[in-house]
Amino acid sequence: MEHRMRLYEFGPTRSTRARWMLQELGVDFEAVTVNLAAGEQHRPEFLRINPAGKVPVLVDDGVVLTESVAIALYLAEKYPGKGFFPADARQRAQVNRWLLFSATELEQPIWRIFRHTRLYPENLRLPGEIARAHGEAMAAGLSQKERRALAALLAKLADAQGLTPGVHPGYKQSPEKP
Fold first, then answer.
1. Which residues lie closer than 8 Å to 131 by C-beta, 6 or more apart?
2. Is residue 103 part of a domain?
3. Is residue 106 part of a domain?
4. pLDDT at residue 143, as a whole number
5. In a domain, 178, yes or no
């Protein structure tokens, strides 16, 4: 009997990273929205799944996994034929480097850029925060080539709509709800 993965999520949060990985892999999964704004993460039924009361949570045939980077790594290793996680240890180390770099160095500046370009109402957006966040991201100890790539990414993000339900038309919200 085949099981279906379940992703507990709420956008815009780190849930986007887990959803993106599932979609890139073409994995059939059930999306369960946990409305953080309504306090659903504090309900006993969710706390039984994740006592920390945070999203994302991936449930896969008895495995309950939290933390978006851990979920992405788990999925990449579970589906080796998709090519997201190399067999070579040196190449895997580079994948881990970029995953951890994005989570520790880039996530906060990018999130600030998103808040002040798309999430907040116009009257609450602070242009100075966008410039400050861009500067923090660029000061993260990258090579010149990596800095150029990051600058291009940050420019695109500043113009993007984001990957959240109701904000970006390309965000695929699964119609199935429990």
1. none
2. yes
3. yes
4. 81
5. no
Six token digits for residue 110: 């990018």
Structure tokens, 119 = 């999430």
Q: Got the DSSP string for 73-85?
A: HHHHHH-GGGSSS
Structure token pair of residue 176: 């199935």
- Residue 64's identity, in one-letter code, is V
Two structure tokens written together for 87: 């067999």
Residues 6+ positions from 76 with CB-CB distance below 8 Å? 21, 25, 82, 84, 85, 95
pLDDT at 177: 33
Residue type, 63: V
Q: How far apart are CA 174 and CA 11, in angstroms?
A: 13
Predicted confidence (pLDDT) per residue in 137-171, tens digit: 777 777 888 878 777 776 665 555 443 333 333 33
Determine whether 68 is exposed, middle or buried from the number of CB atoms within 10 Å of its CB (0-12, 13-18, 19+).
buried
Regarding whether 76 and 93 lie in a shared domain, the answer is: no
- pLDDT the model gives residue 162: 44
Below-50 pLDDT ranges, the chain: 161-178
